[in-house]
Every structure is written in C-alpha cells, then in structure tokens.
Design brief:
With about 200 residues, the chain is an alpha+beta fold. It has five helices and eleven strands. The protein has a single domain, classed as Nucleotidyltransferase, domain 5. Helix 2 packs parallel to helix 3 (about 95-100).
C-alpha cells in the first residue's frame, strides 16, 4: 500500500511489468521473449511508456543491470521517481529492490492477483498485444524491439488518440498541425499500414 503522504503530495510514481511475445527464428525455433516496460507518471495523469531490452530468460544479474540503468544519475528513466510499483514476480528479486532503495526509490510490491492496482500498466500491455503483437508474425529477435515496438511507441505517444484522455494525442508534434482546420489531409503509415495517423498538411 502507498503511504498516505504519497497520495497527499502526489509524487512521481512509476510501475514496472514484464510481458512476453513469441518470436520465430529462421531455423523454426520459437522463443517466448520477455521485455519489461516501465510506464506512467501518475502525477501528471499522462501515460508515457518505455520498453527496455528484450531477453529470452531474464535472471537476477540482468534485472540488477536494468535497475542500474533505470537509476543512472541524470539520464535514468526513473530520475525523480519516488515510488516504483511492481508485481510479485520472482524476477523482481531483493537485489533489484535494494538498488532502487539505494537511490531513494521505494519499491512497492503489489498484492497477489491485483491487476486493478496496476491498471495503467495492464491496459498498456493489452493495447500493445491487441493492436500490434497479435497481428504480426515476428521473425528474428531484432524485429520486435528494434522495429515493431519502436514504431508502436512512437504511434502510441504522438499519433494515437486516447479515449481515457478525452481523445487527445498525448505528446503531439508541432509539425502535425493538429489544431489546423484547413489544408489537405495526409496519412502517415507505420509497419506496412498496420498503424495509421491522419493529419493536415500546413496551408
């Protein structure tokens, strides 16, 4: 449970989750690869996701290195974060939590079978699976992290309307001229047309 001061002062809160996707390699081998997305700054009520390096079998040394990467001074994704929510997966070992706590981030394990307490993260994983992963056959390790997910992240943040945010685009680009009511309508396609974004050309 979050401390009462967390609710009152509304500090930066992030949550961390693993999700799996099956990748087919040229020789016919299928591997369930795991990637953890750190997601959401709740103080701003705006969803921003980051997906880290893909790995077939996360272990304790890998998780410790991810903790060090996320808390790297000045450039780590968790800079300024005070609380990190994560599930009770054994991948989140005590050494992982210790690295976070050493830099002032309190790791909070969620109760068992409580997806509603990590709702933003759960909903993002559902979105990426239904809008992307369930519609593609991934061939080779590079196709998921270096191409598909990078394109989906760009679409999710700067091109996709979010019903829970009054259908706004969270981090729109000025060159897309979203407030314009004139000019011809253009289409930007990603991943062969699987993801589409419509915007107006500057008049």
């Amino acid at each position: 449970m979050l401390p009462e001061t967390c609710v009152d002062s509304c500090p930066k809160i992030n949550s961390l989750f693993h999700f799996c996707s099956t990748i087919t390699f040229p020789k016919g081998l299928k591997v369930d690869a795991t990637a953890p997305p750190a997601i959401f700054e709740e103080e701003t009520k705006i969803s921003r996701a980051t997906v880290f390096r893909l790995i077939p079998s996360p272990d304790q040394p890998w998780m410790k290195q991810m903790a060090r990467n996320m808390t790297l001074a000045g450039i780590g994704f968790l800079r300024g974060c005070k609380y990190l929510l994560h599930v009770r997966d054994t991948k989140f070992c005590s050494a992982f939590d210790a690295i976070l706590e050493a830099v002032g981030i309190q790791a909070i394990k969620l109760p068992p079978r409580s997806p509603n307490l990590n709702a933003y993260c759960e909903r993002w994983i559902r979105s990426v699976k239904t809008e992307l992963l369930s519609r593609m056959i991934l061939i080779g390790e590079r196709s998921l992290p270096h191409h598909c997910l990078e394109n989906y992240m760009a679409h999710f943040h700067a091109e996709r309307n979010h019903q829970g945010k009054d259908n706004v685009i969270l981090f729109s680009e000025p060159e897309d001229h979203l407030s314009e009511s004139t000019g011809s309508i253009q289409t930007r396609e990603r991943l062969g047309g699987l993801l589409k974004f419509y915007y107006r050309e500057a008049a």
